[in-house]
Amino acid sequence: MKLSDLKDKPGARKARMRIGRGIGSGKGKTGGRGVKGQKARSGVAVKGFEGGQMPLHRRLPKRGFNNIFAITLNEVNLDRIQTAIDAGKLDASATIDVEALVKAGVLRRAKDGVRLLGRGELKAKASFSVHGASKSAVAAVEKAGGSVTILAPKAEAGEAAA
């Protein structure tokens, strides 16, 4: 057996059908697309169309709403912060805030702020300046000798004027 003797099994490779090559070919004239109309043209896919029946996405009721005032916070656990401190990316003696976490690579981008969560253990004494913290996170930071300052949420432009 040589490498040049290797072949696919019969029927494994199928020749492509050449459509639109005359009526005698069996795939001529309309080229397997039926007859006239939107779907006989190229580049058409009518998504959600059910032949005139009310489509599923319109039969189902609307639900919920999108709160435009909601603030999205990054959630960071204590074990991630301790890992960054151990790696020398975060300075525990300085105040740890959003900018410090982004600079250290713990967060990719600062959204509306940071919420501190209590998974893991914090060994370093550190002071945090965050937008939110769970009770277990605050307890763990204070047990390690640090402090947590909760920042007020950003005031909206309309609220500042009032």
Strand order of the largest sheet: 1-2-4
Poorly predicted tracts of residues: none
Beta content: 5-15%
The helix content is 10-25%
Q: What's the CATH C level of the domain at 74-153?
A: Alpha Beta
CATH fold-level assignment of the domain at 74-153: Ribosomal Protein L15, Chain: K, domain 2
The average pLDDT value, as a whole number, equals 88
Order of helices and strands: HEHHEEEHEH
Largest sheet: 3 strands, parallel
Measured between the Cα atoms of the first and last residue, the distance is: 87 Å
Number of strands: 5
Q: Structural class, from secondary structure content?
A: alpha/beta
Descriptive overview:
This protein is of the alpha/beta class. The protein has a domain of 80 residues: Ribosomal Protein L15, Chain: K, domain 2, CATH 3.100.10.10. The protein is 21% helix and 11% strand. It is built from five helices and five strands. It has a three-stranded parallel beta sheet. Strands 3-5 form a two-stranded parallel ribbon. The longest helix has 9 residues.
Overview in brief:
By secondary structure, this protein is α/β, with parallel strands linked by helices. 21% of the residues lie in helices and 11% in strands.
Distinctive features:
162 residues, alpha/beta, Ribosomal Protein L15, Chain: K, domain 2, three-stranded parallel β-sheet, two-stranded parallel ribbon, 5 helices, 5 strands, 21% helix, 11% strand
